[in-house]
């Protein structure tokens, strides 16, 4: 992670990949216009989360919300993955 997350690695890899770097000290001149705009927006705009799901099945949404609430407490990724695997049928 030290290498991959370094400024040098981000400034070499992300422009090739077409990604926007998560670092605030990235050399913006190395990036294309879209990435430059995204970097600018991230630095100047307020980032907010979206809670609107496009899943119409209320049973799935309720279970997902409960699972994510528990995840916020225990950070157990396996619980979330298992819920999604076991309740995938509700998405059809």
Spans with pLDDT under 50 lasting ≥5 residues? none
Query: What oligomeric state best describes the polypeptide chains here?
Result: single chain
Helix content: 40-55%
What is the terminal separation in angstroms?
38 Å
Instruction: Summarize the main sheet.
Output: none
Figure out the total of helices.
Answer: 4
H/E topology pattern: HHHH
Please tally the β strands and state the result: 0
Structural class: mainly alpha
User: Mean pLDDT across all residues, rounded?
Assistant: 86
Overall form? elongated
Sheet-strand content, in percent, reads: under 5%
Question: Explain this structure to me?
Answer:
The protein is elongated and about 50 Å long. The chain is mainly α and 92 residues long. It is 54% helix and 0% strand. The protein has helices at residues 7-17, 33-44, 58-74, 77-86. Helix 3 runs antiparallel to helix 4 (77-86). The mean pLDDT is 86. The chain contains four helices and no strands. The termini are far apart. The protein has two domains: 7-44, no CATH class; 58-91, no CATH class. The longest helix is centred in the C-terminal third of the chain and has 17 residues, at 58-74.
